[in-house]
Specification:
Layout: H1 2-19, H2 24-32, H3 38-45, E1 52-54, E2 77-84, E3 87-94, H4 105-121, E4 125-129, H5 140-156, E5 162-166, E6 169-171, H6 173-179, E7 183-187, E8 192-194, H7 198-205, H8 211-215, H9 217-224, E9 229-231, H10 234-245, H11 272-275, H12 286-293, E10 299-302, E11 312-317, E12 320-321
Parallel strand pairs: 3-4, 4-5, 5-7, 6-8, 7-9
Antiparallel strand pairs: 1-2, 2-3, 10-11, 11-12
The chain binds hexanoyl-coenzyme A.
Length: 322
Amino acid sequence: MSNQLEKVKELIALREEARLGGGEKAIQKQHERGKYTARERIAQLLDEGSFEEIDMFVRHRCYNFGQEKKSYLGDGVVTGYGTIDGRLVYVFAQDFTVFGGSLSETMALKICKIMDMAMKMGAPVIGLNDSGGARIQEGINALAGYAEIFQRNILASGVIPQISGILGPCAGGAVYSPALTDFTIMTKGISYMFLTGPKVVKTVTGEDVTQEALGGATVHSQKSGVAHFAAEDGEETLRIIRKLFSYIPQNNLEEPPLVECNDPIDRLEDSLNEIVPDSANHPYDMYEVINAIVDNGEFIEIQREYAKNIIIGFARFNGQAV
Ligand code: HXC
């Protein structure tokens, strides 16, 4: 019995260590950068108390460049499943406090496991990205890990929804993979998407460039179109993911959830008589038209800042997402 108690105590101690990721100092630094930790983000994203973590004690297996002397429980990514408004989702959240959230062989295995489970269950995958890309010390093993992730991104495409939150400086594979997913939500001022960071650009090409100009939320929501949303802060990014998810189905065989509707489907909207002008030379506001006809005037616009001559997004008619 006492031996069992010892084991339980050991397990509790290991869990406490794993929850600290790269350690208290690194967590403090993360907060000073205006960012939440991977676990804090998951807690904000999912229904309270619904998260079940898996692979909490995984460590990397790298012996290059003295890496064997430096390893952390969980290896820089928190993975598991939980619910949003009671609906099952699979989640991975990269932990910047461990090697800048960079992707090792074992981190890739953890992410792939989550993606495989999501495919089996027909449930969405939500990735919270905060990662410097392939873990340089692991060389080809990290790159091979990305190959496995990209392959799953492709196989899952059109079968289950894949949503990416970008919540820190993301480089290399930590950008290519989100760019293959269905929706990418960036966070202004703290999140970036680029092939490599400004320091590497400076070393290789001698060019001075800021993170913002290289791949900030403005660049990707206005110029490249890679980001579908640009949120004001990390909390808003997670709120957008929750809201977006309410409009989409669990998988390609299901319908989106039907929402109770108190906006009568046979409501007549007299304002439409006035909004569209008689003359084709006069402009009018398409938002007014959309807001007038959809349930309760609720419309979630996608790529608001990109190619502004078309408006796209989700709304509901009689509680059914369209
Ligand atoms: C290992 C990394 C890392 C990486 C960051 N770190 N990126 N460690 N591999 N890829 C570590 C840093 O050494 C540092 O450790 C800690 O994370 C925080 O990083 P900082 O540089 O201090 O933070 P910041 O100034 O915010 O800059 C973040 C960054 C920058 C812009 C992401 O670190 C950067 O440019 N990293 C390299 C990006 C890169 O080239 N990645 C490879 C892409 S190639 P300490 O111990 O000092 O705190 C790729 C290939 C995919 O992904 C192709 C697949 C087929």
